[in-house]
Write a structure and sequence with these properties.
By secondary structure, this protein is an alpha+beta fold. Helices cover about 45% and strands about 15% of the residues.
């Protein structure tokens, strides 16, 4: 990955991020609030290391990308969200997406 990031840096290209907040919930529904992934009202999450507060999963994912780039030595690289996965109707194993979106 580092050679690709070097190339992006040399050419002035941004880092393109495909962020899927709902899939993060699907991967760990016991610990991630569906409302946090779907921009609904929550208490948010505070990061004790950075003292930052996140009101939704997308913001946390974008910030995580910036933190990873900085850790890899690319602090000034821009991050652009190029794709998101917003649940509109869940598959058979994603009933929460269908139910929660039916409420909103």
């Amino acid at each position: 990955m580092k050679p690709l990031l070097e190339f992006f840096s040399q050419t002035g290209s941004p880092f393109c991020l495909n962020a899927y907040p709902f899939l993060a919930y699907m991967g760990d529904p016991e610990n991630i609030d569906i409302n946090y992934s779907l921009f609904q009202s929550t208490q948010g999450i505070s990061d004790s290391k950075t003292n930052l507060r996140y009101d939704n999963m997308l913001d946390a994912q974008i910030d995580a990308a910036y933190a990873a780039l900085e850790d890899a030595g690319f602090k000034k690289m821009e991050v652009i969200v190029t794709e998101t996965g917003w649940a509109s109707r869940g598959d058979d194993n994603e009933a929460a997406a269908t139910v929660d979106n039916a409420r909103t």
